[in-house]
Structures
1.
Amino acid sequence: MTVKPATPPIPDIAQVAAAPSGTVIGDRHWYAIRVFYEDTDAAGIVYYANYLKFIERARTEMMRLLDFEHSQIRDSEGINWTVRRCAIDYRSPARLDDRILVESRIVALGGASLDIEQLVRSAEGKLLASALLKLACMHANGRPARLPQGLRKRLQTAESAPFTPQSASKST
Amino acid sequence: MTVKPATPPIPDIAQVAAAPSGTVIGDRHWYAIRVFYEDTDAAGIVYYANYLKFIERARTEMMRLLDFEHSQIRDSEGINWTVRRCAIDYRSPARLDDRILVESRIVALGGASLDIEQLVRSAEGKLLASALLKLACMHANGRPARLPQGLRKRLQTAESAPFTPQSASKST
Amino acid sequence: MTVKPATPPIPDIAQVAAAPSGTVIGDRHWYAIRVFYEDTDAAGIVYYANYLKFIERARTEMMRLLDFEHSQIRDSEGINWTVRRCAIDYRSPARLDDRILVESRIVALGGASLDIEQLVRSAEGKLLASALLKLACMHANGRPARLPQGLRKRLQTAESAPFTPQSASKST
Amino acid sequence: MTVKPATPPIPDIAQVAAAPSGTVIGDRHWYAIRVFYEDTDAAGIVYYANYLKFIERARTEMMRLLDFEHSQIRDSEGINWTVRRCAIDYRSPARLDDRILVESRIVALGGASLDIEQLVRSAEGKLLASALLKLACMHANGRPARLPQGLRKRLQTAESAPFTPQSASKST
């Protein structure tokens, strides 16, 4: 729908994995995951629901890098993130012992919600799955909550960050 | 996009649950699920990825009622079902000990794929989540496979079945 | 360690499955489970951690049959069940589409805890896994709680119930 | 049963986490895990079955450090690891966003099996859960397989490695 920005180079997975909360390069957050037996099914591949676990881990670590840890904003602000919508395309399966990368990018920021694109890639950068999610902030009583002001600012910065290829080298 | 068919009445969940593979009423398959601790998360609600488990259970039982059990078509025909796309909207959360219903309806049938709509409802019929999935038949080598002929016939019947409210009474 | 009671006959799994909370026969609770893709792993069998999900479902349904639903005793009494110890032997694997039975029997009842034996069997009664668990009642603050009086009575009855083979026929 | 070796100092979790396959110090393998929503349940703590996932990840990474990756020995030798027995004590719960450590130590090595002790600790070293497992090597047909010779040697070395406190500093 929007002009697709130039695809950034795929960072080295060993470098990404060495930073347990992943790495931000330009407007993308990169996070490395290893596929274990628990993730696979009898078809020999990662079970389709488990990609939603993978991308939630990546979102959680991205928020943590922005200093908005889930349990902390729940305890201090009384709000939780909720997924309102998730559309995911499965392109190619991941398998036991594979290392994969999750590439996350905020694509829209609303008053109480945000849209995020999350791509699951092989270590070599091959696209395995692509997801588009709408997340909302919710009070404990289920009512929508405005995004915490500090988070909004940090996300706006993340959203508008031009992709700067040279930042890939100073990643970790 | 298409004319929305009249919504069928919600069947009694106790009756649905008494049939472990669920119940077909008109063009819908109904399947009952209980929410256990394993399905919930620290926000006190069903974790978002677990709805994909719930609807996969329902699809599996629907196929079993049509005599196309997953392990049997894998062993006899060498084919597996693969999810190519899943778009899911989360409306209202399910919680520990809730009983929920999955309502499944085939909305399109291709040569090697099918589209299925799956709605997750509370026992009282309230919509909790709605999903639209594209499934494909695949050979073990990852190549697309045509749907087994017998299954295609049975699915076409299921797809075209007019919704007949009176069938609700002769359900089980 | 104690005299092993005579093994009861294995009930018909179709009858057990038709009762969504399972069936009590003598001093045993029987619960039927179907193995789905989500339960299996790339070795083609049920993933070892998932047996703990299966037996927790069975315990939950057994408690529900005794009128002590988890969410209800949490909300009304402020207590949760906690697993303190679980020792499980894996004998033979369950596979995709298998139907299995969980046989649960209370073996000891303390002031704030209970010991329960849970056997996972194939539909034909073959032993797949056997587990012995120690559960405790806990207040929300993590302190041990005495078992609710009504539950204690019902569990004592369940514990002492002599195994009566004729009850197998009037199961459901 | 055996003389308990002196407890090693708890390594710094940030250092452990920076090595995605964890770190070997003396006769112990240390592996860092972050607790995500997927791991927790409606009681607000890590669901009891998920500790079995955590310790399986740690075992997998320990074997990978020894150059015996699961998928590789399955494809080249036709053997899989199977858990025969797991006894786990739950001491104190882990919660959302916690970082935890898994400490693994081989305690016995048989012809076709090995016993491993796995301790789950908080980042500060507090014991959260302790498990003792018996693993066996199996052929695809379900028959026991002898441990690959190279692996046996490497495990014997790991098993007999005296705990050397000074090695903690040259960890990564």
2.
Amino acid sequence: MKSKTFKPPIRTLMGPGPSDVSQRVLNAMAKNTIGHLDPSFVSMMDDTKNLLRYAFKTKNELTFAVSAPGSAGMECCFVNLVEPGDKVIICQNGYFGDRMKENVERCGGIAVIVNDDWGTKIDIAKAEKALKENPDACILAFVHAETSTGVKSDPKELVDLAHKHDCLTICDTVTGLAGIPLKVDEWNIDAVYSGTQKCLSAAPGLSPITFNKACEEKIKNRKEKVQSWFLDLNLIMSYWDGDGARAYHHTAPINNLYGLHEALVILAEEGLENSWERHYKNHTILRDGLAKIGIDFLVKEEDRLPQLNTIVIPDGVNDVNARKKLLKDFNLEIGAGLGTLAGKVWRIGLMGESSNEKNINHCIESIKSII
Amino acid sequence: MKSKTFKPPIRTLMGPGPSDVSQRVLNAMAKNTIGHLDPSFVSMMDDTKNLLRYAFKTKNELTFAVSAPGSAGMECCFVNLVEPGDKVIICQNGYFGDRMKENVERCGGIAVIVNDDWGTKIDIAKAEKALKENPDACILAFVHAETSTGVKSDPKELVDLAHKHDCLTICDTVTGLAGIPLKVDEWNIDAVYSGTQKCLSAAPGLSPITFNKACEEKIKNRKEKVQSWFLDLNLIMSYWDGDGARAYHHTAPINNLYGLHEALVILAEEGLENSWERHYKNHTILRDGLAKIGIDFLVKEEDRLPQLNTIVIPDGVNDVNARKKLLKDFNLEIGAGLGTLAGKVWRIGLMGESSNEKNINHCIESIKSII
């Protein structure tokens, strides 16, 4: 073997994630590894739970980070809450709604899809119609911040509606957390999952998650065991629980958790509401700059995610070649379109550490020079 | 929120994992994060696959790291290879055999347990009897290096036997990889999973895994979809495949993979066989040192894992208090007994970076002073 130490090139990360990770978070990850049952590590886990509650705006006891990326966080919600035969209504307005359907079906559940066009927010009237037509549905699932299209939907409206029809709610806010308002308790969302590599600007690999008492009840009253041992909340609960003896479940990703903890400390220092405001303000700066070079947004103004800007590729510009050039000549990563939007749009992330004026200027100047 | 940057205490990690992580690996994890679809990252992933093939002694195409800890690696093997109704024979001689049973049953499979006493190796005659009594079994699963007891079993014998009875084999070598001889191709093991935080001395959070063609065939011919979306090898294969377009599956834990890559580069520099030899030699030094202070091993000499030494707690010594004192006064972490061995044994890890004479001396002197 002739492999050598890997030296990553220095990039500016303005795609759909990961976002730029700060030196503070990188330094945290490089701290000496200690045992996952070390009292000192356990107290850091407890502090991480509190910081996550702050970020989610919740008092939910069951709030922690799944030891795997956001897609495992999604799966954690579905395998624990969906039992064979359960009917789940999925509001689908992008790529990640499709993945929810896959999850429901692999749990033996029945997925009822409510379709909205990619690039539009979830239509509350359609969701209501589906709830009325499916009185046996027990869960409504939706994406708060669609990473594939740059659209934000309205959790509060959807949750109120679902609860009127006796449904629990599962909310995907992988790209939302810390970037746009999210108020888990005030909005009564039942199960919520996110990622670390978006607006928190920690390294990828963990999935912050929170469940309210109604979810805990459903999980405790399951007829069958959760199909995933690794993601079984009954087991994970006794691992993350700081009270009493900590049951061994798996070895936590120690250094990744150091990084997430530091990213959350940084968020608390800035203040959650200030973070939301910064993400919005920087979106307007990017928007105005792109307008000057004649670039249009896919999503209408009021439904846009400030942290994920989906822009229409100008006529005559080759998608792949242009992105290659941005990466090669400007060390700038932006995101491609997914699914039906492939080749038609770019996705410019202004998430977490990446959401700053220096990046915005670099991005606009780079795009200007290649179109 | 008044949380502060976490400062882990400096420990000597001589438990069942994580082991000490070298400064080189920590530095690698602190390198700037880049995108998971960045060509530069993709080539590092390809190099990681090659390095893992080196460590596993295999040419298997399907060799990579699951983006989650070893327990997810275990689950990845079972959910992909076990279909509902499949009968799986599990040789159980410790805690992790029990977890295999959980996995099989959660996949809708039928687990046939072959029990051996904790602290003994797997009895090949018992395994043969079970295979004869269950001609409809299609998989034999076993633990190469039982982390709960410090026992090594013989994969070659077990695999030869299983193949005679038309069974595929799943081998847990979470604690084995790089610490004791493992020859995946020469021994014809079908599916093998490991962890990063043992003899590789990378941070926890990833699970190296390898599957041969027979497994690929079984997975491709499944009647039902894999129940886990996150661990579905059909999807992961197209993500880790370096040829052609890389399909988006999930966001890889970038910085953890930097760390694993560096740990594998270090292993290649040392040489795999030299690493096996170092682990063995250091075990004999520890063994001789402990003998001088009258401490016995649980496992008989020829079945011991050199990297995980299970010793009998001396009479009159309080398990919990003694380990607390080791941690508090000597910053030394050793492992408790699990399951039926709780309170009766300690587990002293000499894994990866932790396997060195300085640690051994520190460990013996510390134990001497508290008993």
